[in-house]
Design a protein that fits this description.
By secondary structure, this protein is α/β, with parallel strands linked by helices. The chain is built from 8 helices and 6 strands, in the order H-E-E-H-H-E-H-E-H-H-E-E-H-H. The chain has a 6-stranded mixed β-sheet, with helices on both faces. The site of uracil has 12 residues, from helix 3. Uracil (URA) binds next to helix 3.
Amino acid sequence: MGIEDFILPSAPPGQPPTGGEALTVEQELADIEQQVKQCTGCGLHSTRTQGVFARGCPDAALMIIGEAPGADEDRQGRPFVGRAGRLLDSMLLAIGLDEKDVYITNIVKSRPPGNRDPLQEEIRACRPYLDRQIELINPDIIVTLGLPASNTLLDNSMSMGDMRGRWFSYKDIPVLPLYHPAYLLRAPGQKAVVWEDLKLLLEAL
Ligand code: URA
């Protein structure tokens, strides 16, 4: 008998290391959240306060994917809790949805300094977390907010003007790109356009 007899084989995803009950979706999400909080996969870990994982309900039919945490999110550790988040909440409320009906995350889990757009290398480093979240949540519909999130998930370089109001698909899940609420704060005239897109979303739900 040697030390190697005490080393357990690594577990396949969704299973604990010793065989037994498979991890629940909530347990696996909690594990990934811990990994995000400790992640040093890109340079953002040295300037962030904390990694920002998700909020909402893992059973939700609707998953919302934004860009990256801002200052409020970096401080509080939850996505979309600042001004843009409050506008997002009121957009959802306008179609009868609240936090228990949605699961909200970002393509990048750490705040880029000065709220600059995330770099491709930062998006790439965070991508496995996002992909696993999508698998675990298994939503009926995904909404992407703004250009970086929409271009990343849909792997295209289209403009928001060309994407909004149209359905796309990611691994057979319907995707509706919406203008980002931070943009709507700067361009409130576009709220009428977003209302049209929210009606599309409501019909599909
Ligand atoms: N903007 C985002 O894209 N995500 C947040 O969490 C907050 C603001």
